[in-house]
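Final report, closing paragraph on structural work. Over the funding period we assembled a curated collection of sequence-structure pairs, and we close with a single example.
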Amino acid sequence: MRIFKQFIGALLSAALALLVSAATLCAQRHSIKRLDGSRITLAEIDQTVAHWMAAARVAGVGIAIFNGGKITYLKAYGERDTEKHLPLTPDSIMTCASLSKSAFAVLVMDLVRRGIINLDKPVYEYLPQPLPEYPNYSDLAGDEQYKLLTMRMLLDHTTGFPNLRRFMDDKKLKFYYPPGSRFTYSGEGILLGQMVVETVTGKPLNKLMHEFIYDRLGMTRTSMVWEGRFEDDFAKGYDENGKSLGPERREKASAAGGMQSTLRDYARLVQAVLSRKIPPKKERKMMLSPQIQIHLKHEFPSLAEETTTENDSIRLSYGLGWGLYWSPYGEAFFKEGHDDGWRHYVVCFDKPRTGILIMTNSSNGEDLYSGLLENLIQDTFTPLVWEGFKSSREVDSGQP
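Its predicted structure, as stored:
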């Protein structure tokens, strides 16, 4: 009898252990692990996103969360068309804005691996004629500084160019600082990089992106230009007052901000970088290594002079196509996307391979970032203030 009781006790203990294990697995399937090891339930994610969408007055937002280099959460909220009340989906086409720059950097690093591009070779040496002889660069005539430009400078934003010449009073392109001397965020540098890459390979950017990235990662609803097949599910962009700006049916490829993609597809790109699938190991390390330390008070306006040491403790810097900083969880890489009607953000912590991608179809989208980062993945470290974004407290209190 004693042996029988021991046997029954062992069976009950084993059954209890199985039930606890099953309950734990069930809970994990219905929750997401955050940076600090805590978990947030799917219902809590829904509640959090709903709160911040309302606070920020955002039409639609897509959220992807990464754990261990895998996409563990992917969901779209709100509407892609508020007039027709069409829901935003993970496959709704959105303009990626400056998230395009990071994707372009991944392409360039693959070209570096193949020996097609040398990061430190003056880019003018890749061109069949002097740079100022190209119509887009005639403003540089008489300024020999263009001969100093390298692909590394184009990708780490140290060209000395403005962000975009159209924002300048005279609408002209010129050097405001010597190439390589300081961080100056510049879409102009990325556009020059695109011209160099297309010239060297003899292929248009859209074809290259498909060949090196999209097709390899299964990004089936992504292109550098608008395609007719996108008409079945696309998002309209909305301004700060909720007025529709429509979709962006871009006909010309722009590495600086024109990529058309979806939450699902761009999440695949982020996952590939986070899981070390692309670029190859050596080139990935180069891409995510500091190229220039940043002491500017704010990222924008890009030509501002005010400096600070506030971000020295996190070693704020720029890599090749990505911003970098150090957190209690190791190195993090990030990128923002900003265009009329489109606001996106991605930040990843390299060692735990944890991160989040936020894509919105609203000019108010930046007001979501702080609240979502803090609550969904317990990220209170990303230098959002440096990037010019509001804190969650400011958004919640309705401060301008």
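The first helix runs from residue 2 to 29. Residues 210 and 223 are 8 Å apart (CA to CA). We thank the funder for supporting this effort.
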